[in-house]
Amino acid sequence: SKAGADCCDRCGCFETLPLQCFCNDIKSYCPPSCVKCGCTKSIPPQCKCADVNPSFCSTPCRPKP
């Protein structure tokens, strides 16, 4: 199975510290704060945002105001 198939192109953030990302296709009610995200190698795959690895997102992951 390809883990990459479960990755998302956009993600939002939970309102927690440290900030944690979720895939926009799963929790679409939250405006995405990342243009791109990568995925961890965990099962199930989880999003990684710019605050974790700058190469994955062009916009830092921030909680909703």
Can you characterise this structure?
There is one protein chain. The protein is mainly beta. It has one domain. The protein has strands spanning 11-14, 20-23, 38-39, 47-48. The strands form two sheets. It has a two-stranded antiparallel sheet with strand order 1-2. A two-stranded antiparallel ribbon has the order 3-4. The radius of gyration is 11 Å and the shape is globular. The termini are far apart. Belongs to the Bowman-Birk serine protease inhibitor family. Keywords: Disulfide bond, Protease inhibitor, Serine protease inhibitor. Pfam families: Bowman-Birk_leg (PF00228).
Name its key features.
two-stranded antiparallel ribbon, 65 residues, 0% helix, disordered N terminus, globular, 4 strands, mainly beta
Ordered list of secondary-structure elements with their pairings:
Blueprint: E1 11-14, E2 20-23, E3 38-39, E4 47-48
Antiparallel strand pairs: 1-2, 3-4
For the largest beta-sheet, the strand count, sense and barrel status come to: 2 strands, antiparallel
* Beta-strand segment tally: 4
Radius of gyration: 11 Å
In percent, how much strand structure appears in the residues? 15-25%
State the helical fraction. Answer: under 10%
Kindly, what is the distance between the CA atoms of the first and last residues, rounded to a whole number of angstroms?
38 Å
Coarse shape: globular
Q: What count of helical segments does DSSP give? A: 0
What do the pLDDT scores average to? Answer: 52
The tally of domains stands at: 1
| Helix-and-strand structural type | mainly beta
Oligomeric state of this protein: single chain
Sketch the topology as an H/E string, one letter per element.
EEEE
Which residues sit in consecutive blocks of at least 5 with pLDDT less than 50?
1-7, 26-33, 50-60
As laid out across the biggest beta sheet, the strand order is: 1-2
Disulfide bonds: 7-61, 8-23, 11-57, 13-21, 30-37, 34-49, 39-47
Organism: Nymphaea colorata (pocket water lily)
GO cellular component, one term: extracellular region
Family: Belongs to the Bowman-Birk serine protease inhibitor family.
